[in-house]
């Protein structure tokens, strides 16, 4: 059996919430949310299988487009797991685009809590816009979800703005995900009295399913040959129109379905997951392997470099070398010392490239392919 797939404009987030409610209950069509200024990566089919409630369309960080098909059970399981991990329901501040899974999750959690979310006014995020939205919230228990760049802007503003600082300190939890969050940024936010939780997940897992390294709900985590694999009821059904990719990324083992991520990781003795970076971010410099994600983690911990991205660059002697790209000036010698001390001399960045602004994907994540081309 099939059901219609409705393409819903994200201009009105509360209308999107109503459409999502009908999709999850089965009373309406499945939904695919699209922002008015975002070019779709595919033309959506008019129908999907009956069990599909949400399709998430993304260009991905590697340039390969995909459409992730999620069942109603998966989306609702994600909302229930998050609510349990956060200690109960509350009102959500919607600060993320609802065409992406993190924004969809805010809508789904709001439906589970039966409390209407409050959207941040459209436009570049600022402390003033966020504070104006917070003033519209009516419930005492409050949550929001951000990407690291948004958190960084709010921290910068709040360090000079007491009302904003105090308003966000009143939130029960601020989730931060979508990419690695630098430890110094979390420390600055925590110093303001904000309760920060770093999340890990993807569209294929119905969003964040690991909070501060620990799986939530019925999520299972394992590391196979250095690759992070995630299992549980929030896992997507498949990629629409891409059976080869589906077969490669979704596997069944002993009766349980697993999503094979593109991330490298390790599990501590207590089961805490540490994500080390993408499996495809390893370069060979002077005959030695260097994982750029690890280099980026250390670089971002240096003062003023929270936005830094590390990409491969070419060198006539060493072959490939790490290159730091940032919007801030930095002392290359100091950065090389810090990285060398943490990861070894072969991991030291060769140079720093300063841009007025970092190219980003529509989701707000760094556009690594474009950034890499800029340093060649």
TrEMBL record:
Protein name as catalogued: AMP-binding protein
Domain of life: Bacteria
Gene Ontology MF, one: acid-thiol ligase activity
Record-linked SUPFAM superfamilies: Acetyl-CoA synthetase-like (SSF56801)
Domain AMP-dependent synthetase/ligase: 46-218
Protein species of origin: Microcella pacifica
Pfam family, one: AMP-binding_C
UniProt domain AMP-binding enzyme C-terminal: residue ranges: 294-365
């Amino acid at each position: 059996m099939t059901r219609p797939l409705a393409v819903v404009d994200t201009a009105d987030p509360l209308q999107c919430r109503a459409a999502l409610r009908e999709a999850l209950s089965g009373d309406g069509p499945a939904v695919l949310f699209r922002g008015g200024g975002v070019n779709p990566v595919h033309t959506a089919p008019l129908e999907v299988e009956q069990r599909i409630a949400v399709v998430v369309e993304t260009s991905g960080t590697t340039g390969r487009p995909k459409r992730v098909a999620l069942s109603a059970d998966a989306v609702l399981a994600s909302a229930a797991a998050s609510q349990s991990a956060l200690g109960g329901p509350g009102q959500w501040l919607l600060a993320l685009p609802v065409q992406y899974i993190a924004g969809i999750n805010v809508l789904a959690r709001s439906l589970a809590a039966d409390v209407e979310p409050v959207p941040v006014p459209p436009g570049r995020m600022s402390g003033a816009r966020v504070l104006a939205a917070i003033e519209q919230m009516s419930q005492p228990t409050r949550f929001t979800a951000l990407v690291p760049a948004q958190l960084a802007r709010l921290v910068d503003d709040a360090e000079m703005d007491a009302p904003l600082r105090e308003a966000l300190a009143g939130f029960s939890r601020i989730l931060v995900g979508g990419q690695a969050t630098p430890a110094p940024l979390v420390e600055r936010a925590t110093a303001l009295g904000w309760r920060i939780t770093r999340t890990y997940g993807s569209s294929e897992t119905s969003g964040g399913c690991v909070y501060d390294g620990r799986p939530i709900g019925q999520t299972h985590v394992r590391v196979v040959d250095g690759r992070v694999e995630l299992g549980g009821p929030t896992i997507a059904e498949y990629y629409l129109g891409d059976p080869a990719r589906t077969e490669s990324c979704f596997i069944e083992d002993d009766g349980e379905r697993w999503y094979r991520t593109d991330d490298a990781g390790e599990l501590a003795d207590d089961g805490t997951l540490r994500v080390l970076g993408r499996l495809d971010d390893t370069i060979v410099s002077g005959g030695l392997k260097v994982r750029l994600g690890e280099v980026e983690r250390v670089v971002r911990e240096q003062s003023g470099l929270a936005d830094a991205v590390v990409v491969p660059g070419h060198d006539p002697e060493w072959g490939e070398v790490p290159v730091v790209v940032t919007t801030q000036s930095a002392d290359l010698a100091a950065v090389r010392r810090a990285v060398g001390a943490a990861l070894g001399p072969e991991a030291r960045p060769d140079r720093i490239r300063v841009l007025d602004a970092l190219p980003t994907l529509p989701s707000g994540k760094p556009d690594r392919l474009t950034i890499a081309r800029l340093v060649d």
